[in-house]
Amino acid sequence: MSLLVKICGLSTRETLETALDAGADMVGFVFFLPSPRHLSLELGRDLGRQVQRRALKVALTVDADDATLDNIMDALSPDIFQLHGKESVARLRDIKQKFGRPVMKAVPVATSADLAVLPGYAAVADRILFDARAPKDATRPGGLGEPFDWHLLENLDLNLPYMVSGGLHADNVTEALRVTRAGGVDVSSGVESASGVKDPEMIKAFIRAARATQDASQELSVR
Ligand SMILES: O=C(O)c1ccccc1NCC(=O)[C@H](O)[C@H](O)COP(=O)(O)O
């Protein structure tokens, strides 16, 4: 199965086009007001139209209510909802049923104890995104540019596709994949020149590095 590369927190036509041209498999749009990457519904609609099925559109929300999700469905028509809050297993089931879209549940990781939630979520979610647990005083639960200890996932036994995120960039994505064996990688801060400002060259470099890792591991596997 080929590696999924997600560029998250895109908010301009130019950088979205760069990510699509560079071969991103998923493009993430943040609908969380405290985030520097937050999109209005109008901008989400505009950027969503630009994607034109060249990548999967991921709508990122945090403990959003049905009305918010409904508005996002109308504006963006996401391919996947990324639920990055404290959503319960029952809430994941509820969202899947009401909106008919796959859900990717973000699981914050700081210690091995954080993995205890996996069996519950794995029974309902379509994909897991492992992210660094945000500090208690953080203004948002993700997109903070800090990694977690990838070795915590070394002995992971999960019958579900999963992505690794948190503090990734072009220079560490290979090691993150080597250690976690994740089927996907996700980045936001690591392709920004300033908070919320995506950098086209950094986007291209990240995707190149991720693809190079994918190619190398495929060569090894066919030997
Ligand atoms: O990106 C945000 O601003 C954000 C806000 C609230 C919840 C989640 C958020 N981002 C989630 C993502 O999927 C990020 O790509 C992921 O946390 C990795 O971010 P980074 O460490 O900055 O690469």
Structure report:
Keywords: Amino-acid biosynthesis, Aromatic amino acid biosynthesis, Isomerase, Tryptophan biosynthesis. Pathway: Amino-acid biosynthesis; L-tryptophan biosynthesis; L-tryptophan from chorismate: step 3/5. Belongs to the TrpF family. The protein has 223 residues and is of the alpha/beta class. It has a single domain (4-222), classed as Aldolase class I (TIM Barrel, Alpha-Beta Barrel). It is built from 7 helices and 10 strands. The chain has helices at residues 13-21, 41-51, 66-76, 89-99, 118-122, 173-180, 200-222; strands at 4-8, 26-30, 56-61, 80-83, 103-109, 127-132, 162-165, 184-187, 192-194, 197-198. It has an 8-stranded parallel barrel with strand order 1-2-3-4-5-6-7-8, surrounded by 6 helices. The protein has a two-stranded antiparallel ribbon with strand order 9-10. The two termini are 17 Å apart. The mean pLDDT is 96. The ligand O=C(O)c1ccccc1NCC(=O)[C@H](O)[C@H](O)COP(=O)(O)O binds at residues 8-9, 28, 30, 32, 35, 37, 60, 62, 84, 131, 140-145, 165-168, 186-190.
